Amino acid sequence: MLTPNEQKVEALRAAVPALAERDQGFAKSLIESYDDRCQLTDKQFIWIEKLLDSTTPKAVAQVEADKEVLKPIVDLLVAAGKEMKKPAIRFAFPDGTRGKLSLAPSSGVNAGHIYVKDGSSYAGKITPAGELRLIGPNDDRKTALVEALTKFAEHPVETARQYGKDTKSCCFCGIGLTDPRSKIVGYGPICAAKFSLPWGEHEVSATEIAEEPTLTHDDAIEWPNGAGFTPCTHEYADLMGQRDALKPEGVNLDDLSPDDYNEWCALDSSVMIMEPPMRLSATEATILLHVKRVREDEANIGVLSIGERISVAMVLDRKDLLPGSSPTFLEAVARLGPELTTASLNVQRAITGY
After folding, report:
1. H/E element, 224
2. What is the mean pLDDT of residues 249-266?
3. Which residue, 125, 164, 207, 220, is most buried by CB atoms nearer than 10 A?
4. Do the domain assignments include residue 160?
């Protein structure tokens, strides 16, 4: 009867043809050493175990998902790959943990495949035909992964929306959602265009608007003190969201591609943050300075006076920046005099281009 170590050597002897060509010579030298001396060091036996492990096929999940079920995910990422360099989809497992899908490089051996990650760990891939090949996860995790991917493949809009509402970020680019409508839809207009998904078509209910912390309005708002009205400011928020998506925090303008840089400059000019389209009064210039400071760091809102804070909140259409004693914009603006109200509206119009 063979000892455990003898069994390992004999197993390696039988497995030599199945080894990678680069490992076969090493395996033969270990076998020859054993045949000559009838013994090997502990380290050499460890290498035998590693070589044997390399010939054992890794477990591949036997999934219930049909090829046709996951094919839409492949099609979605491949199509997006024509519009962006590294398209990806972030998704949530039933237990709330996260995963990520990304399109393999077009120049590699896996071109057309979709890489699957469970957290930060590689879990397998989806073939161009939609076949899911998983490596590593236990059976429960495989089942959860298949469930999550199937849900996204069958209901991409609804699943992306739920991910956005749960995480406050877009499942495609990973950037935090700031525009009230994007928070409701679950992803931004830029990603919607690149992934050919609906965005502006979403009907926003009164209940959804009430759940959002910032003011949203589709009609003009008449302000007190004879200062006039504010048109719908969704356009302003949309432009800011598009601009910030092109250059997320920590990314330099020099890092952008020429096309992205030109687009960023156009958007930046549109919102008129750096170069307002009109000559501002001293009061308006001061308000604009406060607005810039708050946009750079919202903690700066705390050093402003109540009137300055109301002005900044009004310019940025940010109800959440109002002083606690002023729950609505109309109540807050009623506390301002005509000069500050008019100046705030002028700055808002300068920034939004109205």
Report:
1. none
2. 76
3. 164
4. no
- pTM for the full model? 0.44
Instruction: Give me the domain span that covers residue 319.
Output: 221-352
By CB atoms closer than 10 A (0-12, 13-18, 19+), residue 321 is buried
Question: Measuring CA to CA, how many Å separate 229 from each of 18, 68, 215, 286?
Answer: 78, 53, 15, 21
DSSP, residue by residue, 141-188: HHHHHHHHHHHHHH-HHHHHHHHHHHHSB-TTT-PBP-SHHHHHHSS-
78 shares a domain with 120:
yes
- Whether the pLDDT of residue 231 is over 60: the answer is no
The number of distinct structural domains making up the chain is 4
pLDDT grade for 73, boundaries at 50, 70 and 90: very high
Using CA atoms in the order 264, 266, 270, 271, what is the torsion angle rounded to 10 degrees?
20
Is residue 61 domain-resident? no
Instruction: Give the C-alpha separation, 114 to 163, whole Å.
Output: 20
Statement to judge: residues 304 and 225 lie in one domain? yes
Q: Does residue 312 contact residue 290 with C-beta atoms inside 8 Å?
A: yes
**What is the DSSP track for 93-118?**
-TTS-EEEEEEPPTTSTTTT-EEEEE
> Cα torsion for 190, 196, 197, 203, to the nearest 10°?
80
- Tell me how long the chain is: 354
Most confident of 74-78, 110-114, 192-196, 288-292: 74-78
What's the confidence (pLDDT) of residue 303? 82
Per-residue model confidence (pLDDT) at position 227: 44
Same domain, 236 and 327: yes
Q: Does residue 127 sit in the same domain as residue 239?
A: no
Is 59 domain-assigned? Answer: no
**Alpha-carbon gap, residue 113 to 178, rounded angstroms:** 32
Helices 338-352, 306-316: crossing angle, 10 deg rounding: 30
Average pLDDT over residues 42-68: 67
